[in-house]
C-alpha cells in the first residue's frame, strides 16, 4: 500500500529557486533539501541548478520555468497572428476553428507528427494568453446561420433518404473549419 501526501503541489518563484541554488553550491543538494524543507527534493534542486542562467534573467517574483515550452514555435506564432487578425476583423474564433487552422498550417509547413488535438489547443491558448470569452459575434451571423439551416432543410427535402444527418453535420463542420462565407 502506497501512502500519498495530502499536501498540494507548490510552485516556487525565481528568487526562491536562486536562493536554493546558491545554498546548494556551498553545501550540496541534500543539505539544501534539508535547509529549505522537504518539498524542494534533490531532483528538483538538480534541475534548478541546470536552469540557473535562465532564472537569473527573469523577474524574481515570477513563478519560474514551469510547464513545457512550445514544441512547434513557428506554427504557434503564425497561428497567434492569424487569430489576432481574425478577431480584429470582427470574426469569432472557436477552439475547433483554431485546431483546423493549426492543422492546415502544419501541413503547409510540412510538420510531421502534429495532431492539433483539443488538449494542445487549450495549452496553446494558455501559453499565448488567449481566451474564448468576450468575443463579439459578427453582426450578420444569425442571418448567415439561418440561411445555412434553410439550405440544409431544402436539400433534405429534395433528397430525403439519400443523405444522412451525419453527412450534413460533417458539411457544417467543414464549412466552419474553412470559414468560407459562413460568418463573413
Automatic annotation (TrEMBL):
PROSITE patterns per UniProt: HTH_CENPB (PS51253)
Domain HTH CENPB-type: 63-134
InterPro entries (alphabetical): CenT-Element_Derived (IPR050863), Homeodomain-like_sf (IPR009057), HTH_CenpB_DNA-bd_dom (IPR006600)
Key words of the record: DNA-binding
Recorded GO MF terms: DNA binding
GO cellular component, one term: nucleus
Top-level taxonomic group: Eukaryota
Record's protein name: HTH CENPB-type domain-containing protein
Organism of derivation: Crotalus adamanteus (Eastern diamondback rattlesnake)
Amino acid at each position: 500500500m502506497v501512502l500519498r501526501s495530502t499536501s498540494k503541489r507548490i510552485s516556487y518563484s525565481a528568487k526562491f529557486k536562486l536562493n536554493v541554488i546558491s545554498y546548494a553550491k556551498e553545501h550540496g543538494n541534500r543539505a539544501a533539501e534539508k535547509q529549505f524543507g522537504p518539498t524542494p527534493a534533490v531532483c528538483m534542486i538538480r534541475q534548478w541548478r541546470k536552469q540557473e542562467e535562465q532564472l537569473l534573467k527573469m523577474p524574481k517574483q515570477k513563478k519560474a520555468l514551469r510547464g513545457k515550452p512550445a514544441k512547434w514555435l513557428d506554427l504557434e506564432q503564425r497561428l497567434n497572428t492569424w487569430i489576432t487578425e481574425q478577431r480584429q476583423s470582427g470574426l469569432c474564433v472557436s477552439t475547433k476553428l483554431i485546431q483546423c487552422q493549426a492543422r492546415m498550417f502544419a501541413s503547409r509547413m510540412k510538420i510531421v507528427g502534429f495532431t492539433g488535438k483539443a488538449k494542445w489547443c487549450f495549452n496553446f491558448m494558455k501559453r499565448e494568453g488567449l481566451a474564448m470569452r468576450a468575443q463579439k459575434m459578427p453582426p450578420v451571423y444569425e442571418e448567415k446561420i439561418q440561411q445555412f439551416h434553410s439550405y440544409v432543410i431544402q436539400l433534405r427535402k429534395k433528397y430525403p433518404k439519400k443523405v444522412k444527418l451525419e453527412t450534413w453535420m460533417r458539411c457544417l463542420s467543414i464549412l466552419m473549419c474553412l470559414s468560407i462565407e459562413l460568418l463573413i
